[in-house]
Amino acid sequence: MRDSLTIVFSGEAGQGLQTIEDLIMKSAAPFYNVFSTSDVMSRIRGGNNTLEIRVSGKQIHAFKHGIDLLFLLNDHAYDRLHDRISEKTVILGEENFVDLDKIKEKNAKFSVLKMKELVKQAGNPIVANTILFGFVAGILKLNPEECRRLLTDKFKHLSEKIVTDNKNAFDIGFTEGGPFAFSFSIPKSDNASRYKVLNGNTAVGIGALAGGCNFISAYPMSPGTSLLEYLARMTEDFDIIVEQAEDEIAAINMVLGAWYAGGRGITTTSGGGFSLMIEGVSLSGMTETPCVIHVGQRPGPATGLPTRTEQADLNLAIHAGHGEFPRIIFAPGKLEDGVLLTQKAFFLADKYQVPVIVLTDQHFLESYGQMERLKLDKAYLTNQTIETKPGYKRYADDPTGISPRGIPGHGEGLVKVDSDEHDESGYITEDYKMRILMHEKRLRKKSLILEDYTDPELIGPKDYKHLIVGWGSTYGVLKEFIESSLHKDIAFLHIKQVYPLPEKLKDYFAGVESVISVENNSSGQMADLLKLDLDIPVTHRILKYSGEPFSIEEMERKIKEVLK
């Protein structure tokens, strides 16, 4: 019996891989621990896309390089996967979909899957992906009645015939997959039914709703666009105003306007779009208008690899905007973080009147995993604006640096804000002493922000000798490495709030023999930040910038190498 099963579907855009992912993940989740991730080319149709679904009786969190079961959906589905094939791999597809000599080189097994005949038997050419769903359901011994119910729920809005055709297709696939069940037998999970399946985009979206978000303005840019789409679907249930702006500059200025008027707004983008927003970030800093910005990272420079993953925008987020002003940056690494940190982003933006950036990446946003039920803190919905009085001073000097924030129309005071340097009442000034007073007032917020610091998560033994440091989407692969590692002297520190960093973070690094930074970029931006801000030296840097996430096998190999 295997510990886990890694299933990969390789085809092209338009062959329904997302439908396969949705159906298998939802139907398997009540019985197994599941994780899925995709490698997608930047095109609407054609190319080669792959979908990986991992199924296990124990918790799994990461991409796996090796493939147990590979489905080839066309005649060019194999070539990009050749180095992931081994003697343990079973490949299924039409006879003409692969060069059998290449498979013999790897000592892999090939089994003919006559999809054309099965589709003809089903009587509808568009149900091929449902046949594959049935095939996997047969292998995993899933409840066929529950799977058919899932198909009904998914397609009932189309027509009764489409529902019937998909159920027939499922039955055909289920029968074909049954004989493979023994070869790919894995234990079921005792607690999988406690979890809900979702991806990072949905987690961030739930967090935004939990933070009281009632406005979003964005210009579409992958991988951040899905957050715009998610909140757009929630407009009626949560009274959200959704605006697709003409560009990113307009988007962030609309969000600032929403906060100025008393709303709670967010914008979502990627690195290229965030670059256009930077003047707006600085405007938030000067006017002390709250702002929440979601940045889904992808490889750059410029358009780069628009459908792949990277963690190269940390420096951009830290230094975005001309001039000096405080900000907060969160980097969720697991689904719970996506919810809780995004919720907290709205609260802290309101509390400290600063821009808060939620920094994710394509791998986190578009991978599916499982999350336990959360209890949300309603205190994060507290409205921190005031009712203004006559003579109200928007920028009144305060020892904390936080001036009382009023909104137009709520009270008798006049609310004046200005992007120029200003006095306490909001009037433009060029007085040097007033400049110093206002600038130091804004900067004083940083010490209070650090008092609200979100502590990192330490995974592994408390008496570790070696400490791995990660942030963002490296969480899953590093957690799985620690949980499965034979090394009992290695721990993993996941930094959730990547800026600003407090002095107390140094305690985790005291007395260790080595510090290993793991990042999806080419320079080690977190390693540089630890040295620059806290004088924490990083012994080793494990970096990847191909556009792919780290695999569990790769992580085991690389950490073993650096510890030599």
Task: Please give a structural write-up.
This protein has 564 residues and is an alpha/beta fold. The protein contains 19 helices and 22 strands. The mean pLDDT is 95.
CATH architectural designation of the largest domain = 3-Layer(aba) Sandwich
Helical content, roughly? Answer: 25-40%
Strand order of the largest sheet: 9-8-10-11-13-12-20
Globally, the shape reads: globular
Keyword list:
single chain; 564 residues; alpha/beta; Pyruvate-ferredoxin Oxidoreductase, domain 3; Rossmann fold; 4 domains; seven-stranded mixed sheet; six-stranded mixed sheet; 36% helix; 21% strand; globular
Q: What's the helix and strand layout?
A:
Elements: E1 4-13, H1 17-28, E2 33-39, E3 46-56, E4 69-72, E5 90-93, H2 100-105, E6 109-112, H3 115-122, H4 128-140, H5 144-155, H6 160-177, E7 195-199, H7 200-210, E8 215-218, H8 225-233, H9 235-238, E9 241-244, H10 248-260, E10 265-269, H11 271-287, E11 291-297, H12 314-319, E12 328-330, H13 335-352, E13 355-361, H14 362-366, E14 368-372, E15 386-388, E16 406-411, H15 432-443, H16 445-451, E17 457-459, E18 466-471, H17 475-484, E19 490-495, E20 497-499, E21 514-519, H18 525-534, E22 540-543, H19 552-562
Short description:
This protein is of the alpha/beta class. Helix content is 36%, strand content 21%.
